[in-house]
Amino acid sequence: MTDVLDSSPNPDTRDNDEDAGATWWRQAAVYQIYPRSFADANGDGIGDLAGITSRVPYLKRLGINAVWLSPFYPSALADGGYDVDDYRDVDPKIGTLDDFDEMITALHEANIKLIADIVPNHSSDRHVWFQQALAAGKGSPERARYIFRDGLGANGEIPPSDWVSMFGGPAWTRARDGQWYLHLFATEQPDFNWKNPEVHEDFLTTLRFWSDRGVDGFRVDVAHGCAKELPDVLPTQAELDATPTTDGQHPLWDRDEVHDIYAEWRQVLDEYDPPRIAVAEAWVASAERRARYASPKELGQAFNFDLLEADFDAGAFLEIVSTNLAEAKIAGSSTTWVFSNHDVVRHATRYGLPPRGGSDVKQGAEWLLSGGTTPELDVATGLRRARAASLFMLGLPGSAYLYQGEELGLGEVADIPADQHQDPAYFRNPGVDPGRDGCRVPLPWTVDGPSFGFGPARAHLPQPEWFSALSVEAEDDDPASTLTLYRTALTLRNQLQTTEALDWLGSDARSVLHFRRPNGWEVVTNFGTEPIAMPAGEVLVSSGPLSEGTLPGETTVWLKA
Fold first, then answer.
1. Do the beta carbons of residue 357 and residue 419 sit within 8 Å?
2. Which of 29, 67, 245, 559 is the most interior residue, by most CB within 10 Å?
3. Active-site residue identified among 188, 221, 423, 522
4. 191 is catalytic
5. Among residues 177, 201, 247, 271, which one is catalytic?
6. Do residues 527 and 312 make contact, with C-beta atoms less than 8 angstroms apart?
7. Catalytic residue at 221?
8. How far is CA 175 from CA 72, 139, 157, 162, in A?
9. Integer Cα distance of 497 and 489 in angstroms
10. The pTM is what?
């Protein structure tokens, strides 16, 4: 007996009607580009838009359907570009609006969509609005665009609360006139006041600005944080930590009112033909809460980080896939799958470290803080499992989000010298938070050169020597390389894609998962270490070498019945 799981609105037909252009995102393979670390065309050590344009043939050959572009706006890089000075311009260090237009034209000519990052929870402290707020003073309309409070103590010298920012250190910073402003992230990232109609209108203008330039959709940073309700007497950090996030009433996170914002955004996104899409980065307490962001009346899709946080374990993968496909059907959306991004340790490294188990500590943090020495990393096992997991994921219904470099099998860089780190989390929590620079090291394109082909000069973050063997040049013509695996799988995925459904076929949740898509495309993953009998069918692609009649451990294979 098989278990049929379906997340499509109409399981009997594929999206092949006259509105198919509006549903391209439902099962797209989306490639995240962190622009400052992808390709450097002008030789200043920082990736740029012209560099991306030069690599469009590579992206087309890879077989992706869309690019998600991390922030490219003017920024002091206090948080890797997520501190935005101007939401409707390009950082001069990485290009111009003309460069942006050339890039999106090249992507569209290659039949690749573009999803732009948008950061609505906070601006940078260099944003014109925040500079006006500081100059205008207490009680001004300019200051009302952000969240300012009087301090405690006889002279207001004590912060309004003892809250700790997400990057460590106080969440309040004092302005020169004595008031304090809230920043849930870096000091340079003041939080917007979304109760202010001006904030609403300005972001609607931004959505239209980029949509008019051809952007196909938006990835919404910290989507669960915009709506806030701060009482006159603020809770302590301990009280805040003890407040549930399951009922939509937390003062800071995932409040019910946030959905009014995205319903408003949906009206603008639907002004376009096809409608612009959006995907929420929403770290919420339950699948039910996440589904609200993915509603067709709001953003339409939300990131599912469950696989990203799971160990390489058959039972965990089975439960995650089943739960999220069911959730997507309820929401009327399609689910998303992701293993790596710009905020987490790359999965080729995570899978080579001891299992995370039930720990809530960021996996790989201890290893990074040790400089990559403790616990011992099993590089070969990590890559083998990463290849198997990625091939499993690419066979699932829904959208696959890939992070630049994972198609090369890149691992995390752990030995960045202290004086060359850039992530504020590293500096605000010394010895506690290893930061995120290790997954943001610029890509290697060639086997040698000052930056392995990233650009004509050295890169803004140091690249290790072992990047040479994992460069595009080294893997390009190697039939056994991870790059070849991704190219093959993505090409087949585009050819085989069918309705958003799967049937589990006699899966043994202890070590093996086996599912079939509606057109006879089957995926089998052996999570164990011992070989199993190979199911019947024509082998289309495998994550590793196959033995006659058997599927080796920690290996995935695609079959056609």
1. no
2. 67
3. 221
4. no
5. 271
6. yes
7. yes
8. 28, 13, 11, 17
9. 11
10. 0.94
